[in-house]
Amino acid sequence: MARPTPLSGFPEWLPAGRTIEQHILDALRRTFELHGFAGIETRAVEPLDQLLRKGETSKEVYVLRRLQEEPAGAPDAAADAGAGASQLGLHFDLTVPFARYVLENAGHLAFPFKRYQIQKVWRGERPQDGRFREFVQADIDVVGAGELPYHYEVELPLVIAEALGSLAALGVPPVRILVNNRKVAEGFYRGLGLEDIDGVLRCIDKLDKIGADAVARVLVAETGASPEQAAACLELAAISGGDASVVDRVRVLAKREGIESELLETGLAELGALVTAAAERAPGVVVADLKIARGLDYYTGSVYETVLVGHEQLGSICSGGRYDTLATDGAHTYPGVGLSIGVSRLVSRLLAADLVRVSRTVPSAVVVAVTSEGSRSGSDRIAAALRARGIPVEVAPTAAKFGKQIKYADRRGVPFVWFPGSAAAVAEDGTPVAATADQVKDIRSGAQVEADAATWAPPAADLWPRVEPALG
Amino acid sequence: MARPTPLSGFPEWLPAGRTIEQHILDALRRTFELHGFAGIETRAVEPLDQLLRKGETSKEVYVLRRLQEEPAGAPDAAADAGAGASQLGLHFDLTVPFARYVLENAGHLAFPFKRYQIQKVWRGERPQDGRFREFVQADIDVVGAGELPYHYEVELPLVIAEALGSLAALGVPPVRILVNNRKVAEGFYRGLGLEDIDGVLRCIDKLDKIGADAVARVLVAETGASPEQAAACLELAAISGGDASVVDRVRVLAKREGIESELLETGLAELGALVTAAAERAPGVVVADLKIARGLDYYTGSVYETVLVGHEQLGSICSGGRYDTLATDGAHTYPGVGLSIGVSRLVSRLLAADLVRVSRTVPSAVVVAVTSEGSRSGSDRIAAALRARGIPVEVAPTAAKFGKQIKYADRRGVPFVWFPGSAAAVAEDGTPVAATADQVKDIRSGAQVEADAATWAPPAADLWPRVEPALG
Prior knowledge:
Chains A, B: Residues 15-363 form the Aminoacyl-transfer RNA synthetases class-II family profile domain. The structure is a homodimer of 472-residue chains. The first copy, chain A, has 15 helices and 21 strands. The first copy, chain A, has 472 residues and is α+β, with helices and mostly antiparallel strands. Chain A has a domain at 366-469: Rossmann fold. In chain A, the strands form 5 sheets. Chain A has a 9-stranded mixed sheet with strand order 1-5-6-12-11-10-7-9-8. In chain A, β19 (439-442) and β20 (448-450) form a beta hairpin. The longest helix of chain A has 20 residues, at 15-34. The radius of gyration of chain A is 29 Å and the shape is elongated. In chain A, 48% of the residues are buried. Chains A and B meet through α1, β1, β3, β4 and α4 of A and α1, β1, β3, β4 and α4 of B. β3 of chain A pairs antiparallel with β3 of chain B, so a sheet runs across the interface.
């Protein structure tokens, strides 16, 4: 086989990159669990008809076929895949599978059900910077049975703020969470006399991409808005701010437009509560931004997007919102709210912009040298004694000259090399040779000291690989 | 949407099952990292021609197609997927992708390269007990550049023994690792005058399924063996044992058959060294078993299978071996040795046989009660104070009666409920009302005590969910 080349859109990291990603995933998981979210995983596949319920994403789905199977929807394929499912596709997010999991297992779950889920998802989109065909998402969601109190719409972005904030220690830039409320948008648009709410939202969603003038034109062309209505929509979208005064500014605008809407008032009360709570618990992180629309049409309340400060052009690294009717089997409905962190997008930027460094590329804190292949089992015993006390250790691959064994450690960034001592012996001429103690060398400083595998430990900062800000 | 039903072969766990799986994955990862294995992940897809290099597995591969793409191998699909790749399939193991990763990144890796990899894999096989279409594997491998010392064939099964042994605390039954060496088998068969080594191995591999008589028949029918040669092969396959005496028994048999083979001698020396080292470092766990063949034809030295003691009929839960030519680009070859744990198979058995129990289904050690929705922010502050000290906490979903809030905790197995105190106040009649302290209740014993969120902590055993033997 010739030397293989990467597949565009399917990122893979070298061990250093994976170490960074793993530290991020561990930190996210810890915050999620500290907040009581239970971890679950769902299968990678869903019946194609489920994946295509929202027409918008249909072009992104990867469809599966067993190699020996009759192509596309043969009877055997349907029977194989389970009742009613003609074809399987890879999931393109974790929200649709989670809604299905909730419906399928409702009888076994306790509601409100808080879960986190960290898995890969697949989208057949054309790859570009920060946009992949396979990528890792880390999601949190809460769903209720029949109802879900509003306060979860406040809680979830604050959990995300804490989770992403905990990554600062690793060198991740600060984030800004932009929030809006569908009820505000819908109440305002309807109050203006507009009917095609989804259409207006889709236009507003393009604001950052195509600019205000172009959005005004498509609003008129596609949603039947008058130029005045389009201008009012854009004026609403221009409002943003980190405290409850944004609510007053929306009210002033609505009054000027003669809008009276209960839905708008409900939405403004919710948005105000969110911004006020966030200003107390995560000051400066959460900002109301009335242009945030989110393309997916299942959101019904709060919507969220998140930018990495200084890397806004990367797009949102964490999005979500409140949804009321995504998970329903007709008889029961499970409203929810959730956010999804685009871990691969975040990691790819950290690596590309060299924002983060890792202290070594292997877990080992120590390489135990091997004096001769005949004494390898002695080196193995030293390693086992260190590991038994929680110290990551490997044994040198060959009994090469010590200089070469030190180089083995150095190439991997392993800070310590351990030299086994020798037992007491008798030389060929009969002279007794005293036993020598084990020694351990810090190969960064060159300092070498006697050491006992039953008691020695590296400094805490050297025990495991560190992930740190690159400029730290 | 109607209530969805499970897809056969695509297992999903409820939160309790996932907690068990996560504890197992965490324990495996810890052992792998203590031994210096670096974690990597590879993409889920490989070019189809790479996946089909070994003909045997072709029927298991899932092929991908973008929904909007021209079916099967259209020019655009090829251009999209990367140079030379006409179609993509889901990987069916982690060894083939790892070999590709090594070739692709050889210039950036330090050899010998030790990695672990924990990911899902997919095989379109007919599902049955312990055999899934989507499942999690946890692999360790070491590859060298050009050469790889034999001692890694001893080290890797011992790392696995330690990793699987560490699961005993969770309630996982002990394991037995069965080892053989391809050189022994090949040397013996060639010494007998047999030529179709792969054919003989495939027949011997069926011993447990179809029995010795049937294997003797297919050896004669399919590999051209005489009845006497078949009988000798079966006699070799019947040899097993936990110490180096197995080597002597093979030598006696070989001598009786008039076999003289350097390859056999090399294999016996290796197998003897493995069994001897294992008897010292993992007594009773590693057993030489000369019938272990492994179907895949890329193994060239040691081969391994692992059974769960008392659950042998489940099949191997961890298999692997030494391979010399899997990763080669013509100019360079990277020989390796590795083993793969079938995590889903293991977890499905633990759950089906009720071997393991989990102390609760959510991470939370504490539910902070909410006295009234107006005071929710006070409960949030208590929760934040506890979390800041590493205690997993959630806040009750509603300000229901305390009995209902206690039931909320109880349903999830959360051991503690925290009742916020009240600030000093003045009653309506002007009487001063003294402040009351926070209290925390152990809802298992009913014991309730005053507590301060800045100092209180649950017993260490209650801090996180425990996974334990069900009969413990």
